[in-house]
Amino acid sequence: MLKKLYAKWMYAWETALTTRDTNRVVRPLEWGEDWLADFVDGAGLSDSDSEFEWMVRLNESLVARADDFFGYEVPTDFRLEKRHPQLFPTNVRPETLEQAAEWRRLEESGEGVKAEFLRFTSPVSTRYPENDVVNARWYPAPAEKQVGRPKQAIIVMPQWNADAFSHNALCTLFNRFGISALRLSKPYHDIRRPAELERSDYAVSSNIGRTISACRQAVVDIRSCIDWLEQQGYEHFGVLGTSLGSCYAFIAAAFDPRLRVCAFNHASTQFGDVVWTGQSTRHIRASFEQEDLTQQDVRKIFAAISPMSYMDRFAAQRKQVLVVHATYDLTFIREFSLDVLKNFDRLKVDYVSKVLPCGHYTTGETPYKYMDGWFLGSFVYHAFKNLREQTSKLASQPASETASAGTSR
What is the pTM of this model? Predict the structure, then answer.
């Protein structure tokens, strides 16, 4: 009885949180072929295909040529910039707008403290100049905590429509462990958001090609951040992604063996399933339903950015993995997260599973945000500690044994 009452209360709370923003826009379906024009040649597309069939075939081709699709040239203009942090809110609630105004006032009055941001030109270009300059707030670990040990860093990717302060507390927590952090702004988010938008709608929308392109850009940006970290002498790397960020983080880890520590905070196997069933994407589903698309159709047109398409590749590299899911999640519904765990079991991925007794949006509410922070923080601490111990053990072995250990699976 109490369990049913708790579930009813949680679903009501979750629904209230997902419906309080009034600036979600239902836009018409756009196939967005122009966003993927560089990958059309060799895709086996036919002029007789319908637009839906054309996009399905293109997704199949992108998965088959994924090394090229998620490949890139290392940026040459890495730089650190100092500026006053700004909130960049994605909702129009009065309390949020007041908070954003206060941060602007602090900057204008000179009372605010500047922060460091890694900036560089994304290897994936779009038609929005502000989106093409990557932005990552830099949280270097204190020097005294890095003495006598390999330099370690983690890339943090918050949820869809996150403001610029989301997940910053996690970065300061990791610093206490001696782990540096780059809090990466996803494509079309905070300072990268085009001026025409109130929300980060272009990251996930009813424009199929643009949504796929945004994922490609995010994955490449993550990998580029690792390149910069390597240039700074870092040796061990991890990635933490929440919600949409977990999708981006998973694909980046599947294609970049340097990412040895992976924390997925809400996860799903199929991008299209989340778009179709999630409360926070109901306005996008409405666009698809207007064109008579089904859930299976939407799954197919987002195959190129679905973790399931790269599950075998992810499992082929040794990693330490955390998956957090929520029992009452109405955005990444529970069955999709369990499907991730099922596939990890099948492929013998070394993972830890943690369950929150809340929903997707309520993960950010008290007390659940502290539970989630504990799961993420303790995992990251122990995973990087294990990497240090493994490195120390390998360093103490004879050269022949080290070479053998480095090639084992």
Answer: 0.94
Structure-block tokens of residue 316: 């082929």
Residue 408, domain member (yes or no) = no
209 in a structural domain: yes
Strands 320-326 and 259-265: parallel
What is the spatial distance between Cα 134 and Cα 72, in angstroms, rounded to a whole number?
14
Could you tell me the CATH number of the domain that includes residue 368? Answer: 3.40.50.1820
Domain count along the chain: 1
For 343-375, the pLDDT digits (tens) are: 999 999 999 999 999 999 999 999 999 999 999
Tokens matching residue 180:
């540096």
**What three-state secondary structure class fits 82?**
strand
**Strand residue runs (E) in 327-378:** 351-356
Report how many helices (DSSP H) and strands (DSSP E) the chain contains, helices first.
Answer: 14, 9
Question: What pLDDT, in 10s, does the model give residues 18-55?
Answer: 988 888 888 999 999 999 999 988 777 777 789 999 99
Radius of gyration of the chain (CA): 21
Q: Could you give the CA distance from residue 183 to residue 53 in angstroms, rounded to a whole number?
A: 38
User: In angstroms, rounded to a whole number, what is the distance separating the alpha carbons of residues 181 and 29?
Assistant: 37
The candidate with the shortest Cα–Cα distance to 307, out of 265, 358, 253, 347, is 253
Domain that holds residue 233: 2-396
